[in-house]
Amino acid sequence: MSTPQSKTLAPPEQGQAAWGAVIAMTLGVFGLVTAEFLPVSLLTPMAADLSVTEGMAGQAVSATAVLALITSLLIATLTRRFDRRNVLLSFSALLAVSSVMVALAENFAFLLFGRVLLGIALGGFWTMSAATIMRLVPEHHVPRALAILFSGVSAATVFAAPLGSYLGDIISWRSVFLIAAGIGVITFLVQLATLPSLPPRGRASLGTLIELTRRPGMKFGLFSLVIIITGHFALFTYVRPFLENVTGVATAGVSGVLLGFGIANFIGTHLAGSLIAKSLRMTIALMPLVMGVATLGMVMTNGALNPTIVLVAIWGAAFGGVPVAWSTWITRTVPDEAESGGGLVVAGFQTAIASGAVIGGLLFDFVGSLGVFGVGGAVLVVASIVVTIALRPAPVASEQT
User: Fold this and answer.
1) Cα separation of 28 and 250, whole Å?
2) Which residue from 6, 212, 328, 376 lies 20 to 30 Å from 311 (Cα-Cα)?
3) Are residues 195 and 85 in the same domain?
4) Helix, strand and coil percent figures for the chain, each rounded to 5
5) Model confidence pLDDT, tens digit, residues 341-386
6) Which residues make beta-bridge pairs with 9?
7) What is the tally of structural domains in the chain?
């Protein structure tokens, strides 16, 4: 439902850039990604407080991912008659509400319900984010605007896990989620002040998604993406138990190691652009290989402290290039339907996040941290080999000078 123009900002005029709205979108990305992965750094105290195993507590991540997956496939169709401004604002409101519910949860079922609401917000926001950015700035500013948007992911990666772990030890994990709720409120207010009215465009259809999966290379590419991200999140969801139980790192040390992961991830995100310019196929294959070798190295050294710190940073740097590489892959594979293709990539990511958390949890409860990292690292190495042999990304459609 579109809000009357007198009560909202007008859409950007042709040739103008709404940079304030771009920053507001970036803040939304930061808030959502932070909330999504807070359980990674708070897994141990959450499990103890709610009287569940750490493997079960890890399903708080998978519950969010499952709903994000469903939402990413349906949101464009379900909201096709609504002003995109109002839809995006509703996602920021859900971020705040879901975080409050998690903070107040007295049992695991209520916590999962809060995480389900976050999944709806996450899947919807990611599906619409790139298309919205393209309407906020002129075409020649789109790459810069998208780079700003993805910096919200990098910032959340740098701060969410280590800061969540550190603050959770000081003020409790529930208070950390209340802080996440505060970020949601701030995001809502900033978006309310800066996002212009964005009436819906075009016709969204589930048939378009089905048609895209039938195009050459799409099924194998999406399957490869899911395998790689599943391997990563089977590991990342249970990195704190590994550091505590195998490496013997105290809570403050966990925060430091995760901070190293986040900083390396930020660097890897920016280095990926240069690698992709040389070879997209090489980048797509190289990243999971480095991740797999790094995590297998952690197993082979039996979690020795100094090697683990270095290997976690290498893992983080390699993963930083994965979203950039696969986003580039989809724009080259289906350039005429990049928005719908982006929805499929979001769905693939969320499928993998859910699968990784579930599989990692099952492995953790049966074979412990070393087993999780051994299997996950091997999966990443095999995925890299398969992608190297079989994936054939399309070349750049055109070069701009």
Assistant:
1) 32
2) 328
3) yes
4) 85, 0, 15
5) 777 888 888 788 778 878 888 888 888 888 889 999 999 999 999 9
6) 196
7) 2
